[in-house]
Amino acid sequence: MTAERLNPDRFNEATYANDPKVGIFVGEPRKEIWIPERLFDRMRLIAAAYGLHILPLLDGTADILSLDYRQVAVLRDELTFIGELVPDPLMVNYLAPFMELAADAAWRGGVFRIERP
User: Fold this and answer.
1) pLDDT tens-digit profile of 21-74?
2) In Å, what is the CA distance from 116 to each residue of 8, 9, 12, 91, 108?
3) Model pTM above 0.85
4) Is 8 a member of any domain?
5) Is residue 20 reached through a cis peptide bond, with omega within 30 degrees of 0 on the bond before it?
6) Is the dihedral of CA 104, 98, 113, 61 positive or negative?
7) N vs C: which end of the chain shows fewer Cβ within 10 Å?
């Protein structure tokens, strides 16, 4: 039996529709994405379980966090690792644009900000 059949609501975007959102911003002109907080925390906790470095630190202890291009390059690699590891189609829908913003910030050396609710 698959996880999706056991807990179908965990893979349904409507489950997270009213969640507070985590904002991720990069560059000028500003590009941004918004990820439901529980899905962001799912990514963060998976990263922590595998002993990754940057993503687990984004736990909400700071409302706004800025990362430099070196940290963003590590974050991009961590997001790639999680996306390849976990067969969660809903999470992957949010990982893809998150990775694109991280890649853009790492390449351009721009400011990468994360705002927690």
Assistant:
1) 999 998 777 889 999 999 999 999 999 999 999 999 988 787 778 888 889 999
2) 26, 24, 22, 18, 24
3) yes
4) no
5) no
6) negative
7) N
